[in-house]
Amino acid sequence: MTLPLLNPVPASELMKPLMPFLSLLIVTSLGSERVAAGQPASRLRFGLSFPEERSQAPLDGRMLLVISTNVDQEPRFQINDGPETQLIFGIDVDGLEPGQQALIDQTVFGYPLKSLAEIPSGDYWVQGLLHRYETFHRSDGHTVKLPMDRGEGQRWNRAPGNLYSAPRRIHIDPSADQLIAVRLDQEIAPITPPRDTKYIKHVKIKSKLLSDFWGRPMYLGACVLLPHGFDEHPEARYPLIVNHGHFPYTFTGFRETPPDPDLEPDYSERFGLEGYNRIQQEYAYKFYQQWIRPDFPRLVIIKVQHANPYYDDSYAVNSATLGPYGDAIMYELIPYVEKQFRCLGEGWARFTYGGSTGGWEALAVQIMYPDEFNGCFAACPDPIDFRAYTVVNIYEDKSAYYVDEQWKRTPRAGRRDAIGHVSATLEQMNHRELVLGAHSRSGAQWDIWEAVYSPVGKDGYPQRIWDKRTGEIDRSVAGYWRENYDLRYILQRDWEVLGPKLKGKIHIYCGTMDNYYLNNAVVLIEEFLESTTDPYYDGEVDYGQGAEHCWNGDHERPNAISRLRYHQMYVDKILARIAKAAPPGADLASWRY
After folding, report:
1. Do residues 230 and 346 both lie within one domain?
2. Range of the domain at 30
3. Is 6 within the bounds of a domain?
4. Cβ within 8 Å of residue 587, ≥6 positions away
5. H or E segment at 125?
6. What is the pLDDT of residues 470-519, one digit of tens each?
7. Residue after which a domain boundary falls, among 457, 483, 509
8. pTM to 2 decimal places
9. Can you name the residues that pair with 201 across neighbouring β-strands?
10. Tens digits of residue pLDDT in 81-118
11. By three-state DSSP, how is residue 102 classified?
12. What DSSP string describes 312-350?
């Protein structure tokens, strides 16, 4: 989207009849609008409000102000960890009335500039957005305000029901005594549910476990890929493959028709490829062609939908803050899917795989539910040893943001490319999240780790693993993380019990130049696994030399292509494991038509 060039609206024009229809005004006084209490005055300030036609009731949430010099798309889509990011500032609002202004001034923390005062004088595109919260009365006695996912996968800039303003071009002068009023008179529309097809089905169930915990109806879903011939073979019972990962709108990577010849090619900045959207369609169609071949095994594959008030998925484990998502998926959703779609319904016939977040989840559920799965394939997993929580040792380091040194401050890197060029530091990445939401409510990566792994604080929100502004690590919280979610530590601590159950089931893959340094933890867990003798783990840890995030064990294809082949990547290993581990009398035939 290219934004038109608009001039700022002068104060003398405020009374013109058309002005109520504009989303952003510049005024020099507060006029008749009310100001949210407790906001300090300063020279440059923005007053963000919503009209009664958007809500007659007061609203809670995170009020965000985005300022940009980029005209390629709306400012709300330009906030990221990369060098091209634009500016954002945010405050919490509780019970903000229609027409009441929430003030953002020079004292409000921002990213990547920390204050409005640091913005050079000039013309900018400005947009406001209210990320709406709702109130939860949890069963643990805490009342918290959080942004419930509304089908978008916890994306603040796309969440249905969020209010926002149209972008406007204005002149900003931090030294001027100026109030810029931003009127949030637009609302993000609901998302159309995905459509079922012959092969892809969508299921949704109300979870009793999660509903009891959260004090309101909570749901789990699955995007189900059915085997070829499912309707024609009612006697068949199928193995179940659980693909873990970020929120899936539908089952992606599967396409029943050839690539669209009229598709306008895009450019993948990540992979440096022209027409990557067409390449994606091409490989999705190739998977369909492989899926229906006579010699391809008949399996049911599901992608789990478990977006929650903190993130686009739950990490598939039980958590003090998020609730019993692990048990809800394992004992409510999976049995429902297996019954609905005629799966074998036993641990020897279940497998799990995923990359990045999904890689951590695949390994975690295999460890937490060792008898319920017959193998996991964890690609580029999120940190699986917290001695290498990316580049931080949370048990020994004092600061997450800087190397512990006497005379200088060396920032810790957060993201790199294949040749080691750093594009973001850990401090920058965490400060972006802090602006997007206090109390681990940003809906982003570091906050969800905190929400899943941390004990509950006195206020009902997750206890911080480190001070979000300074990076100072809380060792007591780190100790809780180690006992409950450090996967290498848990394996080592409980190997006497877990070892016999996990023998032959663990497969881990990672590139040696993972963008987020996730290979560091893989090396540490490999050291432990290779040292096991009673029993030997008898699995696999493999590395892609020089490969970035998210390498999945494919030594023949580049990342851009191998990531499009996850669904068929591990089929041969799954079949070999079934043949080796299936109990006597197991059904190895009905699903091999």
Report:
1. yes
2. 11-187
3. no
4. 237, 344
5. strand 122-137
6. 999 999 999 999 999 999 999 999 999 999 999 999 999 999 999 999 99
7. 483
8. 0.91
9. 224
10. 999 999 999 999 999 999 999 999 999 999 999 999 99
11. strand
12. S--TTSEETTTEEHHHHIIIIIHHHHHHHTTB--SGGGE
